[in-house]
Design a protein that fits this description.
Strand order of the largest sheet: 7-6-8-9-10-12-13
Structural class: alpha/beta
Distance between the termini: 95 Å
Radius of gyration: 29 Å
Oligomer: single chain
CATH architecture of the largest domain: 3-Layer(aba) Sandwich
Number of helices: 11
Shape: elongated
Helix content: 40-55%
Largest sheet: 7 strands, mixed
Number of strands: 13
């Protein structure tokens, strides 16, 4: 046995050892906590949300829907987006192929909820492949009615997109004495055909004769705009899908030709329109995001009613109004958003 005499015993050496052990344990504990912290977001975001947009980034309506949706779902689920790009590609076979591509993504990724925006996703994804499926769907931006898609299904709910047509027409009637003849100018697309049909019904109810021009190119649109100056007022449909559209060129060309009041329900058409009562795309995205969270919390789509949008913005374009000589009431100008 080795014996230590009093002169060999140094208690500070044992104290240093204890400090070293405590420091080593603290470092290890910190590393464990940091590792767990890195794992935590994966646990929180374990549920998957897939967003299928019918159109493409850069299209104002789609961008607004996406902003609204992301503002609700960001950080709440593992978010993935698929853009079908069917506004610029109108061929039926292309739309079917994009629907199948979306289906393959859904089948492989297995999202907990799918959110779709606008008609083509509803038609070529939900209706074509997922009627009464186990995967829940939330749609938004379907124009006017869901009857043609057979909604609701047991796994589908959402928000219908309805333009504030009647308030817009009521405002036109209040603003000007002559309002019996109008023309609708828009793109030659399925969506615009549906919008035009709704405007025709609404104008018939108030005794307004409505003609229309649905065009394919910017040149055709400019001709239609020039010819429209012989009407009492102009209803601006969407330009989305019109080939060769150049914002600067269009705004420059129409300014000297502008004589008649123009109105729209599309916010992105305000650079070319005097007065707008416009839908709010962010509302569609926000509502869909909230429904998606409800579903992730256990709600069933079949228990959630399909609703229409409830908001709209008022816009005015002072440059076009000045060029035309048309003067709107001060209270309307004061509460309106200003187009640039």
């Amino acid at each position: 046995m080795i014996q230590m005499n009093r002169s060999q015993y140094r208690p500070e050496q044992h104290e240093d050892t204890r400090h070293t052990l405590r420091n080593s344990f603290s470092v290890r504990l910190l590393l464990v906590l940091l590792f767990l912290g890195m794992l935590l977001p994966q646990t929180v975001l374990a549920e998957k949300c897939l967003f299928i947009s019918s159109y493409h980034k850069g299209y104002a309506w789609s961008d607004g829907v996406e902003r609204g949706l992301r503002s609700v779902l960001e950080g709440k689920c593992d978010f993935k987006q698929f853009d079908m790009d069917t506004k610029r590609n109108k061929d039926l076979e292309y739309k079917k192929a994009k629907g199948l591509e979306a289906k393959n993504l859904i089948d492989n990724w297995q999202p907990d909820v799918v959110i779709t925006a606008d008609d083509n996703a509803a038609k070529f994804v939900i209706q074509a492949h997922y009627k009464d499926h186990s995967i829940p769907f939330v749609f938004c931006g379907v124009n006017w009615t869901v009857k043609e898609y057979g909604f609701p299904y047991s796994n589908v709910t959402g928000m219908v997109e309805i333009a504030p047509i009647q308030p817009l027409l009521d405002k036109v009637i209040a603003l000007q004495e002559n309002h019996e003849r109008a023309i609708y100018i828009g793109a030659n697309t399925l969506t615009e055909t549906k919008n035009l049909a709704r405007f025709k019904k609404a104008t018939e109810r108030v005794g307004i004769q409505l003609d229309s021009r649905l065009v394919n190119t910017a040149e055709e649109w400019l001709v239609a705009y020039r010819d429209a100056q012989k009407y009492d007022f102009i209803i601006m449909g969407s330009n989305s899908g019109i080939k060769g559209w150049d914002k600067e060129q269009i705004t420059t060309d129409i300014l000297p030709k502008t004589r008649r009041l123009s109105v729209t329900s599309h916010g992105w058409m305000m650079p070319y329109t005097m007065l707008g009562f416009t839908k709010v795309p962010e509302e569609q995205g926000e509502w869909s995001g909230l429904l998606a969270l409800d579903i992730l919390d256990g709600a069933k789509p079949s228990d959630i009613a399909i609703v229409p949008n409830r908001k709209w913005d008022i816009w005015t374009n002072s440059e076009l109004l000045a060029a035309s000589g048309i003067v709107l009431p001060k209270n309307l100008l004061r509460k309106s958003k200003k187009a640039h």
